[in-house]
Design a protein that fits this description.
- Helix content is 69%, strand content 0%.
- With 226 residues, the protein is mostly helical.
- It has 3 domains: 90 residues, Alpha Horseshoe (Serine Threonine Protein Phosphatase 5, Tetratricopeptide repeat); 61 residues, no CATH class; 56 residues, no CATH class.
- Helix 1 packs across helix 2, helix 8 runs antiparallel to helix 9 and helix 11 packs across helix 12.
């Protein structure tokens, strides 16, 4: 088994040195994780960059991760959101859903780019349309609160219900909770206490404290749940 693994790693190295983008990406992952080779973040960055420069979307995405989180490496690993934006944008433009979502986060927070909710909306939407649950949840936020943006940001509870529902169906506790709030208030949907309680219960079962608090309040005050 060990010989087979070393044979595989040696083959990956040969292909990577020959300029094979996928092999460079895989070799970067091996160095990043320390699988079959000594863990080496500089080598991981080198090989991942070579693959990314050839347009390999997964490598571009991984580079974005390296420049926002240090990729799990030493705490002094240089972080640079502007560089992350560069690589995540390239991956996102190739349809990489997780890159689209994370790029939306950077635009929402104004990290590495000027804060821009419309651009965040664009990238979240592209990811959400591919079924990315967290992006669907974030879109729900944008259409219910403006996400902390300008007060004239267009609010649309019906659109929020659409995205929260999709995220909730994938088990996102925050979306289940927020969708429950819309049902209890009748915002974007007919008022429905039973639906709200059902959604809060799903979120509470995942340990989501705000949903647990809502259910506890109803119980303590004798409010009929079902």
């Amino acid at each position: 088994m060990g010989n087979i693994k070393m044979c595989y790693i040696n083959q990956i190295k040969i292909l990577a040195e020959q300029g094979h983008a996928e092999a460079q990406y895989k070799l970067g992952n091996l160095y990043r994780k320390g699988h079959g080779v000594p863990q080496d973040y500089e080598a991981a960055e080198k090989w991942t960059t070579l693959a990314a420069e050839q347009g390999f979307a997964e490598a571009q995405f991984n580079l974005g991760n390296m420049y926002t989180t240090g990729n799990g490496g030493p705490l002094d690993y240089r972080l640079d959101y502007r560089v992350a934006v560069k690589w995540w944008t390239l991956a996102a433009e190739q349809g990489h859903a997780e890159a689209q979502y994370k790029l939306g986060n950077l635009y929402r927070k104004g990290r590495g780019v000027p804060q821009d909710y419309k651009v965040a909306d664009k990238w979240y939407t592209l990811a959400a349309e591919q079924g990315h649950a967290e992006a669907q949840y974030r879109l729900g936020n944008l259409y219910t609160t403006g996400n902390g943006g300008p007060l004239d940001y267009r609010l649309d509870y019906r659109v929020a219900v659409k995205w929260y529902t999709l995220a909730a169906e994938q088990g996102i506790a925050e979306a289940q909770y927020e969708l429950g709030n819309l049902y209890i208030k009748g915002y974007g949907v007919p008022e429905d206490c039973k639906a709200a309680v059902k959604l809060w219960t799903l979120a509470a079962e995942q340990g989501y404290a705000p949903a647990q608090s809502n259910l506890k309040f109803m119980e303590e005050n004798g409010i009929q749940k079902i």
